[in-house]
Design brief:
The chain is built from 22 helices and 25 strands. It is of the alpha+beta class. The chain is elongated, with a radius of gyration of 48 Å. The structure holds adenosine-5'-diphosphate (ADP).
Length: about 650
């Protein structure tokens, strides 16, 4: 008896230890045995379930039809068959939840082989089924995607290829599985691509790149190529997958954008060149007109002749201003204006600018004064030419619109840090002033505040617009204040760097005199210029000033003359036939490498467009002046030339 009890206990323990649900019935299909997994799966407690019909406790549902399966294991009981469930059948729990279950029922026979009940073993396969479902979805995506996907073993043998890949190769799927990837004709088998793929299999590393391949029709195609190992649970590489994405359209798009960009750049360069040529073509004859007039004005003339020539000179100057404004305007509109960041001496800049305008002021009987805050550092970093351009414009306007009184230039610092300073520069006049409504029109392109004033004073109406653009590019503001009838003040700010380089400023002599009439020191100058009229103008101007000038008609001649004689400085035209000014300068600098000397070379140029200054300086020039050569500017540049440290 004891033995039987022990045996029963053992069966019970075994039953409860089984990981699957186990349930047994008697011949009437009523439950007689049920283990704990079965309890969990059904939500029934064993005590309640025992004696109940199997299909009351184990309720199965066909997923497709959503209907209860009446008695799935009936045939086991009636005919002794082994019965399973369909893979989509669900077991409904007492709490309403459901799970996928696999089951197998078998009859229980007594010693006479008579069926006395059934035993059913059930397993929860929800996880497996969910995984299967997931895999099914993923496979569907891979089958449908337009990207070509393949899985190979570690020897490049294809195990799986999706329809897109099959289509890409033009093969039948049967022909692809089991083949070496590198023998398929989706890539040119002799090409370096095959080598790339072989290397990838050797390296076993993830890789992504772009490859070109020839398709079945012989067209060049581009694919984004992704290569990646597949590891098993132990981390061992068992397979590789490759995804090929067609990026031909994008590549062709990029290519056409690149071509369009190149063409646009070429067109732009042609426009730049045109601008440079136009600038040269217009300024060269103007140079002649203004230069010869200036020259003739220096000779003995009767008052009427002088008056006539003055009118010609004024008309020439006006025309030149208009040409300059239009060229500047088109450069601004084309985004061609660049702001430089170089060391410069602000005081020198202001004073030399004033000295140029002092002649006109004197002629009109106006006082020209300036004040520069002593706190402003000697050497600043910024674009002196643009600052000068703005200042010149404001001064020209002030001189234009003032008949009596004075013009005052003030330079103060608005804000300052260790490395930067904001300057506020103002030009105030005692002229006709500007009314409030006229104020609104200032700084706008093509706006002159008053039609009648335009007729009286001339101008393009571009000057202040250009100033505003330049100032804005220098991170500054420009504005005006005025009392009509009493005068106007124009202000602009610029943010500049503070240079640690003060030596340069100390070396420079500051000319406070505002005078251009006397020559400090006669210089020996070599003028290299091919055009006779320019030769004549510059020669005569410099000569009248007391300098001695020798002329070379071209670069080669200049080099010859330099072999025999030495000069204090060279004025070098840029555009010359045969050997241009840049090349001549380079040759001079090369020769100097041996002697260690450095003669100052000033470029004379009709085309001052973006990048020119850099071009001149890098060729070894020290400074440049623009054509048509203005007398005061010529004297000032020649007499104050500084050696460009870059070219030394
Ligand atoms: P413009 O080249 O015609 O002088 P600007 O843009 O320099 O063009 O000036 C536009 C207009 O602003 C001038 O025509 C003039 O009417 C007015 N203006 C500029 N500066 C002054 C000033 N200092 N005094 C009076 N009016 C001025």
């Amino acid at each position: 008896m004891q033995k039987i009890k022990e045996k029963n206990d053992l069966y019970e323990i075994a039953l409860q230890s089984i990981g699957d649900a186990v349930v047994a019935t008697d011949i009437h299909n009523n439950i007689i045995i049920m283990n704990s997994v079965a309890e969990k799966m059904t939500g029934w407690v064993r005590e309640d379930a025992l004696g109940k019909p199997l299909n009351e406790v184990f309720v199965f549902m066909e997923k497709k039809s959503n209907s209860i399966i009446e008695n799935p294991f009936r045939l086991s009981l009636e005919q002794g068959l082994t019965i399973g469930l369909n893979k989509d059948d669900l077991l409904l729990s007492r709490d309403g939840s459901s799970r996928y279950a696999s089951a197998s029922s078998s009859p229980i026979r007594d010693t006479n082989n008579k069926i006395v009940g059934i035993i059913v073993v059930l397993r929860d396969i929800s996880r497996i089924r969910n995984n299967e479902e997931q895999i099914r979805k993923l496979s569907l995506i891979i089958e449908q995607t337009r990207n070509a996907v393949i899985i190979t073993d570690t020897n490049r043998i294809i195990e799986y290829a999706n329809p897109s890949f099959i289509q890409l190769t033009g093969n039948l799927s049967d022909n692809i599985i089991g083949q070496d990837l590198c023998t398929l004709n989706f890539i040119d088998c002799s090409s370096d691509k095959v080598q790339i793929i072989k290397e990838l299999y050797k390296s076993r590393q993830k890789w992504r790149g772009e490859i070109d391949l020839i398709d079945k029709q012989g067209n060049l195609n581009w694919r984004d190529f992704m290569f990646s190992p597949i590891n098993n649970y132990d981390g061992l590489v068992t397979n590789f997958f490759i995804i090929l994405q067609d990026i031909t359209a994008r590549k062709l798009g990029e290519e056409s954008i690149r071509k369009a960009k190149e063409e646009a750049e070429a067109a732009n360069r042609a426009k730049d060149q045109f601008l440079a040529n136009m600038s040269h073509e217009i300024r060269t004859p103007l140079n002649g007109i203004i230069g010869m007039t200036t020259l003739t004005l220096l000779s003995d003339l009767n008052p009427e002749q002088k008056e006539n020539l003055n009118i010609i000179k004024m008309a020439g100057d006006n025309l030149l201003n208009i040409v300059n404004d239009i060229l500047d305007y088109s450069k601004i509109e084309a985004g061609k204006v660049m702001i430089e960041e170089i060391d410069f001496d602000l005081r020198e800049l202001i004073i030399s600018n004033l000295s140029i305008h002092s002649i006109r002021a004197e002629e009109k009987g106006l006082k020209l004064r300036y004040y520069i805050d002593t706190d402003i550092p000697a050497v600043l970093i910024g674009d002196p030419h643009r600052i000068q351009q703005v200042l010149t414009n404001l001064l020209t306007n002030a001189l234009k619109f003032t008949e009596n009184g004075e013009i005052h230039v003030n330079v103060n610092s608005d804000a300052r840090s260790e490395s930067a300073i904001v300057l506020r520069i103002s030009v105030s006049d005692t002229g006709i002033g500007i009314t409030e409504e006229q104020m609104d029109k200032l700084f706008k392109s093509f706006s002159q505040v008053d039609g009648s004033i335009t007729r009286n004073f001339g101008g393009t109406g571009l000057g202040l617009y250009i100033c505003k653009q330049m100032v804005n590019m220098m991170r500054g503001e420009i504005w005006a204040e005025s009392i009509p009838g009493q005068g106007s003040s124009f202000y602009f700010t610029v943010k500049l760097g503070i240079s640690g380089n003060s030596a340069k400023a100390n070396k420079k002599a500051i000319d406070n005199s505002c005078s251009v009439k006397t020559v400090d020191k006669a210089l020996n100058i070599l003028l290299v210029e091919d055009q006779k009229i320019n030769q004549l103008v510059i020669y005569n101007l410099l000569h009248a000033r007391g300098h001695s000038v020798e002329i070379a008609n071209n670069g080669a001649e200049a080099l010859e003359i330099l072999e025999q004689r030495s000069f204090d400085l060279i004025l070098m035209d840029i555009w010359m036939p045969e050997m241009d000014g840049l090349e001549t300068t380079r040759q001079i600098r090369r020769r100097e490498e041996k002697s260690g000397e450095h003669i100052a070379i000033i470029a004379i140029t009709a085309h001052a467009i973006k990048g020119d200054r850099e071009k001149f300086l890098s060729a070894g020039m020290d400074d440049y002046i623009a054509k048509p050569v203005e007398m005061e500017k010529l004297f000032h540049t020649v007499e104050n030339v500084q050696i460009n440290v870059l070219s030394k």
